[in-house]
Amino acid sequence: MSLDTDRNFDDLAPRFARNVYGGLKGEIRLSVLRRDFAECLPQTPRGTVLRILDAGGGQGQFSLPFAADGHELTLCDISEEMLQLARDAAETAGVAGIRYVHGSVQDLAREVREGREAPYDLLICHSVLEWVADQAGLLGLLSDLVLPGGHLSLSFYNRHGLIMKNLLRGRRPPILDGAFKPSAGSLTPTRPLDPAWVLQTLGQGPWELLCHSGIRVFHDFLLTPEGRAMPQDRLLALELELSRQEPYRSLGRYQHVLLKRLLRPGQTE
Fold first, then answer.
1. What's the rounded Cα separation, in Å, for the pair 26 and 187?
2. Which domain does 72 fall in, by range?
3. Distance between CA 19 and CA 86 in Å, rounded?
4. Using an 8 Å Cβ cutoff, are 67 and 98 in contact?
5. Spatial separation of the C-alpha atoms in residues 117 and 112, rounded to whole Å
6. CA-to-CA distance for 53 and 33, rounded, in angstroms?
């Protein structure tokens, strides 16, 4: 597995979809995302149809409900296998009218910049950044894909959560020595990110931060039988309660930020 190229999940698509959104881990992720959207995004007037891009959307677990509600959804991914899983999921759910694009978010951003693609009201970019070789480059392109006044939902794998999990297992984290490299068949993201760097980089662009949450702020650190036996409803409630509180937020295995796209100086809507 090369760290010089973006990760394509054609070889692991079913396993990736199952591990990311299956089981309690997936329920925690979806619960935090849904809560953040409900509380931090402005409500659109009834009947408003949003143009939504799910970039690197994989199976579309989070975005398919938007299409079911009548919004215009484009789902893009560099993995044809992941797109097929999304088509199958949409067919099973009886959701039609989705546009599937076999390609990268970087390519779509360039098409917007060149006037061959229109920007979107909402860009969803979940669990993509940690698999991309040029992370700063991708962050710089995201604003091209969003209309002024539109919104970006970005989630990414947290370097601090990875370090803490290694420490709790009694290991010196290899990433501290610059030696972190998951095995070829691993689903551990290849390029964990420092949230402070991500927020600083986004702060240099036309963004207003609306919300910042941690995802799985303690679930993955339950190493005792007593901890693992915690009732699911209690665990989920605690995850939601602590997900925006420090220091728990900064230890979340993933981070989620919601941002509003502002006008650049001299730009008009």
1. 14
2. 13-261
3. 15
4. yes
5. 4
6. 16
**Residue 69 included in any domain:** yes
Residue type, 257: V
Quickly list DSSP for 65-97: HHHHTT-EEEEEES-HHHHHHHHHHHHHHT---
* pLDDT score, position 188: 84
Q: How confident is the model at residue 3 (pLDDT cuts 50, 70, 90)?
A: very low
The CATH number of whichever domain residue 26 belongs to comes to 3.40.50.150
**Phi, psi at 214, each rounded to 5°:** -95, 150
Tokens 């919104």 -> residue: 151
Q: What is the C-alpha separation between 217 and 246, in angstroms, rounded?
A: 10
DSSP-derived letter for residue 62 is T
Q: Is residue 268 part of a domain?
A: no
Mean per-residue pLDDT of the chain: 90
| Alpha carbon 177 to chain centroid, angstroms | 27
The answer to whether residue 63 sits within a structural domain is yes
d(CA 156, CA 171): 23
The predicted structure's pLDDT at residue 193 = 97
Q: Cα angle at 35 between 33 and 41, to 5 degrees?
A: 90
